[in-house]
Amino acid sequence: MSLFPDVQRKAQDEISRQVGPDTLPDFDDYDKLVYVQAVVLETMRWLPVAPLAIPHRVTRDDEYRGMLIPEGSTVIPNTWAILRNPEDYPEPERFNPDRFIKDGCLDTSVRSPLTLAFGYGRRTCPGRWLSSASLFMIIASTLHTMDIHPILGPNGEPFDPEKHAFPGIKLNFDKLPCAVTPRSTKAAELIRKYTNN
Ligand code: HEM
């Protein structure tokens, strides 16, 4: 959000319009918060938690597009490349939730990152529904009440998370600097009300 202030503002405008200032979003607001749903999808696409999913061993000979995958082979899915395939996601480097929206609704003809970012086949992540619902709620509640600002580097350039990623089975960062401030006095009251502070 600190890198894409226009996305942040658009999501905040939608939440303000649909939820109003007196309460936090809840799951009854889900269908109305189409742009926030698209932010969740784009978040899972742009920097997937498991860019190479989990390696699997093939238990019997298999064939893919005429190529033999012999029993015992280890298959490592390149989720990162699939989620940045320009044929499915034009300008893939751009964080652009609008790619998932058509005529004010989620565009089901665009491949959902939720079918990719949680692994594949029988061992697909069983936590995917919990995770995507939690992400929706965390993103909606945070953006409704707080502004996320960039912290500029020594040369005045914004922080680029990709430059701070380091390898591992999941995507790791050595730091993710940003500043988070309440959007208004009313928003600060809401935060206190819901966190008992
Ligand atoms: C954004 C959050 C999450 C992401 C991106 C994620 C991603 C993944 C991926 C890529 C796999 C490997 C699937 C495969 O083998 O192809 C996996 C497996 C698994 N995940 Fe998640 N996960 C998330 C959250 C969770 C949560 C919240 C839970 C539990 C409540 C969970 C439980 C599991 C379990 C138990 C497996 C192993 C499944 C098996 O091997 O049969 N995950 N997850």
Automatic annotation (TrEMBL):
Pathway: Secondary metabolite biosynthesis. Heme binds at C125. Residues 7-16 have a biased composition (Basic and acidic residues). Keywords: Heme, Iron, Membrane, Metal-binding, Monooxygenase, Oxidoreductase, Transmembrane, Transmembrane helix. Residues 1-21 are annotated as: Disordered. It holds the Pfam family p450. InterPro entries: Cyt_P450, Cyt_P450_CS, Cyt_P450_E_grp-I, Cyt_P450_sf, Cytochrome_P450_fung. One of its GO terms (molecular function) is monooxygenase activity. It is found in: Membrane. It comes from the Eukaryota. Its cofactor is heme. Belongs to the cytochrome P450 family. PANTHER family: CYTOCHROME P450 MONOOXYGENASE ALNH-RELATED (PTHR46300:SF2), P450, PUTATIVE (EUROFUNG)-RELATED-RELATED (PTHR46300). This is Cytochrome P450.
